[in-house]
Request: fold
Amino acid sequence: MSLDKQEKTAVRAVTSTDVARIAGVSQSAVSRAFSPDASISARTKQKVLAAAASLGYRPNRIPAIMLSGRSYMVGVVIGGLENPFYATALERLAIALRESGLQVLLMHVDDALTLDSALDQLLSYRIDAVVTSLAIGSKSVARALSQLRIPVVCFNSSLVGPWISTVNSDNHGAGLVAARLMARRGVTCPVWLAGPVRNTASRARGEGFCHGLREAGMPVADLTRLQGDDTYDSGYDAVIGLWKRNIRPDGIFSSNDMMACGVIDALRERMGLLCPRDVVIMGYDNIPQAAWRSYDLTSFDQHTEQMVARAMQLLDEALGAKDTPLSRTHVVDAQLIERGSTACGD
Amino acid sequence: MSLDKQEKTAVRAVTSTDVARIAGVSQSAVSRAFSPDASISARTKQKVLAAAASLGYRPNRIPAIMLSGRSYMVGVVIGGLENPFYATALERLAIALRESGLQVLLMHVDDALTLDSALDQLLSYRIDAVVTSLAIGSKSVARALSQLRIPVVCFNSSLVGPWISTVNSDNHGAGLVAARLMARRGVTCPVWLAGPVRNTASRARGEGFCHGLREAGMPVADLTRLQGDDTYDSGYDAVIGLWKRNIRPDGIFSSNDMMACGVIDALRERMGLLCPRDVVIMGYDNIPQAAWRSYDLTSFDQHTEQMVARAMQLLDEALGAKDTPLSRTHVVDAQLIERGSTACGD
Reply:
């Protein structure tokens, strides 16, 4: 069956043959008129575009995908959009991919268990690459991603394997900075509020924090570590748990801003304590709510626009390398954004 | 060129012919093994799946898209993910589409101007339908969408045209309920804080609010109408503007929760006023932050899960109607969620 014949069997679609007939040009001229880099005279292109507009014709990428094996679609695997940080990152990524002439085939995944079938579905559309911000660090996930044999770019991930590149925020470095700031503010009883155990970015923040406290001469062996799950409620509940255990911190570094907001509210509402007067609080992500006046939260900005730009570079290199698997890592500095919660004044 | 030959030219992909050879079955059996509803013996299917797994074969949807003109991809056009409401709605929609065997081809659009080129790109992938939550109500957008000649489902939109169906929150009805609650709380100087002018859902909320105030015997002619842009900052600034004009409201209904949070913070921080003691505040969307203890904001829940379910129904009907354009509207009740900001107690 010829390409032509196949196009005609498609429902609703006006074909390039129709446009060629009306414009009085060859079918190849129609195809060149819609290819950004193809050679075609301005006059012929104009005739084609006019004919296309009159017929409501829109170029069909499907035959080209079939012939080249490249779809110009990138599978974007997401989860946890309730965190404004991920929503903003997705928006920026969608814009950057589109500017590079790539489309986003979006897949929502709850956990590592549903990732496999999600990837199968994406692959049946012959996606060129995968980009994901899922905080899944297991070896089986790395294996599943490597087996796709297409470029994979992960954000804030410790996944390692052929085909897998990562763009990470300098999580460890930010932890160091947080500890030094607490030391400067005279904190003597710091607490670390961790995100989910499987989240390796959170772990790196906590390790950096310990490292920095040790440097500042604080007794890290006594450091209280709280377990949160990245939600506001888990931050709120963690504070109540602390007080039940009779621990009275004067500084809390939270692995993300959502939990830090919960911490601030619990301190004020349940303990009658104010931040920063009684407790110095820091978060991570610099979500919009960190700047809301009820929180005025010191945080770390991951510079998602830079992280997305690095991811686009990695994608470009990996797609250019064709069948050769690349594995690169970029680290982007996280910027300390000081606000009232660490007593920097207004 | 045969389908077979084309498949072989695709980069990296193992073909169904390879699987058929290893499994010792026909190519058609391989195809049936990967079609959910196809007739095939359990034994044959097992042989095919084992061979496919050993080769790393994944079915290729592209030839089927070319032949049938159906891609099982839905173009989802989004904007404004900084509002947690839209982020949650997108997540729910992505899950629902996937459960229906449809994929999300995501397109981020800043405004009506970029919508046209976005739609062209989506159409070149032969998407089956479009779903959008863009608050764009212009006639030119309605025309552009109708001309696609594929089903379009809009959320909270006043767009009208062939092929266009809408799922709306009962915005007018919620406005009525807000006015009645203010009347019960003894509000005598209410203020309406509107979203962007082009946002027809916001307009309907404001009209319902006026309607309800009139019913309650309040002088609607004097109603102060503030113009916001759906952001926290615009709510914060609106309050400062009010005080400059020497208007002292005792009730503010905000077209969304983000602005209402800004209102609460400005009242407390700049005017030293507390909510609900001095001013009763209501929002719309019931975003997670409405429940955060610093805001404790009474709001309207749009029940996105119901709205998404209705959208899926409309999509199903419209896709079933093939080339016949459907135009339907579903309205979903918005539920009042009373919290502290309207003095309902804890």
Q: What stands out?
A: Chain B has three domains: 3-60, 70-169+304-333, 171-301.
